[in-house]
Write a structure and sequence with these properties.
The chain has helices at 2-10, 17-29, 34-46, 53-78, 80-86, 90-115, 123-151, 157-170, 180-191, 197-231. It has ten helices and no strands. By secondary structure, it is mostly helical. Helix 3 runs antiparallel to helix 4. The protein has one domain (2-231).
């Protein structure tokens, strides 16, 4: 989705995929936006850019955060009765309150940014970018739910929706690497060990981490080999 966004804005070529993969890996296993900084440096060196590179990437990141925050708020609001019916308790109350504060404070910052006109993209580009980010979130929820359903065929839709909501909430935590690894102990604490869901989420988190490391290594080698051949 990000390649499609930047393809529209910069006519990004297919050879940008390794850099985008590294960006995703760094954001997921190091901390948020470390990959964006790395991709910005790559784009300045390898991509003929239109307009302000920093401004464009900042707007794309801001809209990604906005789409994620709004989707999480919607999931929390729509599924609150279901979530409290499945889990409930002081731990869930505290976690939900913390996530709500984080989301609302970040949305407040975005509103302030709007008033000082920091966003540089046109209205049409902002709408299309926000729409693609929203589509990415929806597809991610669908495929993640399908993955859990394949691992645990007997899982009820109610539990599936509750865990999807918890996962969205966990992913709103700032400066936390490998967020999926936090989901398993949270599921265990809230839902108990009976469903086997905690073990399944830990398995998915471990596979995701291994895949990120492999993709990061492969794309780094693919990027540095041409440079090494040129210097040789």
């Amino acid at each position: 989705m990000e390649w499609l966004i930047l393809r529209r804005l910069w006519k990004l070529r297919a050879d940008a995929f390794p850099a985008l993969f590294r960006k995703q890996v760094a954001n997921e296993i190091v901390f948020g936006y470390s990959g964006d900084a790395q991709f910005y440096l790559w784009a300045r060196q390898h991509q003929p850019l239109k307009g302000s590179a920093f401004g464009t990437l900042r707007d794309v990141a801001v809209l990604s955060a906005l789409a994620g925050n709004l989707a999480t708020l919607a999931m929390m609001a729509i599924n609150a009765p279901l979530l409290y019916a499945v889990a409930g308790g002081t731990l869930l109350n505290s976690f939900a309150a913390s996530v709500a504060v984080i989301i609302l404070s970040s949305l407040g910052i975005l509103v302030m940014r709007r008033f000082v006109s920091l966003l540089t993209l046109s209205r049409r580009d902002l709408i299309v970018t926000f729409g693609l980010h929203s589509l990415r979130i929806v597809l991610g929820l669908i495929f993640t739910a399908l993955l859990w359903k394949l691992l645990l065929p007997g899982l009820s839709p109610m539990i599936l929706i509750a865990v999807a909501t918890l996962r969205m909430m966990v992913h709103r935590l700032p400066l936390v690497p490998a967020r999926d690894a936090l989901l398993a102990p949270l599921v265990l604490a809230l839902l108990g060990p009976g469903s086997g869901l905690a073990a399944a989420t830990m398995l998915v988190a471990a596979l995701t981490l291994v895949t990120h490391l492999a993709v990061g290594a492969i794309t780094s080698i693919a990027t540095f080999l041409p440079a090494a051949r040129t210097s040789a």
